[in-house]
UniProtKB/TrEMBL annotation:
This is Putative mRNA 3-end processing factor. GO terms for molecular function: RNA endonuclease activity. It comes from the Bacteria. It holds the Pfam family Lactamase_B. Residues 34-198 form the Metallo-beta-lactamase domain.
Amino acid sequence: MRQGHPAPRALEPEAATGHFMTMAPPFSWLRPEPHGLHVVPADAWVDPARAVDTALVTHGHADHARGGHGRTVATPETLAIMALRYGVMEAGSQPVGYGETVTLRGDVRATYYPAGHVLGSAQILLEHAGERVIITGDYKRRPDPTCPPFEVVPCDVFVTEATFGLPVFRHPPIAQEMGKLLAARENDAGRCVLVGAYALGKAQRVIAELRAAGFADTIWLHGAMERMCRLYEDHGVDLGDLRPVAGVPKAALANAVIVCPPSALNDRWSRRLPDPVTAMASGWMRVRQRVRQRNVELPLVISDHADWDELTATIADVNPSETWITHGREEALLRWCELTQRRARALALAGYEDEDD
């Protein structure tokens, strides 16, 4: 195993094309399969797309976490989210705190570190035969009041997402987007601001960032948001005064901030609200076509994933011997690795989707 942070290794150009080669995985004990990463000596899988005997889960979003596993190893917060969303039973769950190591079969060690994505999200460090692999799941580097920040962990192979792996994706400061939201509330007297946000992670972050910006009024919730927000509160995340919008007179919601699932922005439910300003909190709001598709009046570019600069900076910070790139815009990040003389390959894993990030 290498020690510390060596200089990136030069790649061999492919004779026929002149492009740098994407290397086959050097570690026989960790095998990319279509439905997940297989930790062969332990017969365990990381974020598998189907039910397996032993699953190591990075976080609670549906494209990473599923029910039906014989044994689910995850942080306590992720297990609580999986119990709420997917009915994962306590009997098959093994909680692992940040910095805690679990020894699996075949002399494989798994240690969980914060990923900064959502509540309970983790990177998983796998160690076997003197080699270290970090599997990030999803992550971001920016501060988030709802979860611990990402930690840089030295490793030989760094498995990174590439959801926003194009140079066009550079997310603005969160304070700027909160300012736009609060200005819309002040400038449109009598209207409410209806914010579409993914139910796990994004909704709670928007609420917490509003509080950080000084907004102390009631924030109203669509019924689909309540249980997850209460789970966050149960795990120590203060979201302030939250109330369900059901049964509240229309006039009482003038100038209110209401958080709902993206699917509710333009459905029948929203028609009972006082002339809503429709807002959407997502990294995809950088893309005008997506703004038009959603019929969004106020796009808020707020992401729980790393943007282009965060992705490239993280690879540089970790400085692994190899980088494996998955679920996202793999080609551009792979090309960046090639241009910076970093050994890299793209993985073809099934089951990963664009979240309403």
